[in-house]
Amino acid sequence: MSNAVPSIDQLQELGLPTPVSYWPQTWGWALLLGILLLGVLILAGRQWLRWRRDRYRREALAQLHTLADLRELPAVLKRVALSMPLSAGERQRVPTLSGADWQAFLQRHAGAPVPHDLSLRLAALAYGPPVADEQLRAECIAWVEHHHVAV
Q1: Is the pLDDT of residue 35 over 80?
Q2: Residue 71: is it exposed, middle or buried by C-beta count within 10 angstroms (0-12/13-18/19+)?
Q3: CA-CA distance, 122 to 136, in Å (whole number)?
Q4: Domain segments of the chain as ranges
């Protein structure tokens, strides 16, 4: 037995393991990654198109929330109806709608129940004195938020 004290100079460095690539080793994983990326791109594109298509809705909601004179409510709703993606025939009829026809249009495109007298109350705003009917404003906001169109 030797009484030699080990020295740090005797230490040998261990070899590093061979590097492993993070890239998939088979074409199946690459194909799956490609399909996944394509799906994400398609979903992002659809979301972006929906966001662009609903620009009129966001602008109308901002205007409805800041309206000082509620007599502008009917005009805002008509502009929303004209901005909706409708068929050509239906779009041409929107400016002339009033009374029961306007009520039917609002009901047909509503995503939530519409009061049965909404069009009458909107028409009364145009000819009456300025009123502070916050319930009417809330109903118009709800219609703009929830109306649906077939695309």
Answers
A1: yes
A2: middle
A3: 8
A4: 55-146
Q: Using one digit for the tens of pLDDT, what is the confidence trace for 79-114?
A: 999 998 888 888 899 999 999 999 999 999 998 889
Locus of tokens 């791109």: 41
Copy the structure tokens of residue 129: 């004195």
| Interatomic CA distance for residues 103 and 117, integer angstroms | 8
Q: What is the pLDDT of residue 133?
A: 84
Report percent pLDDT > 90 for the chain: 54
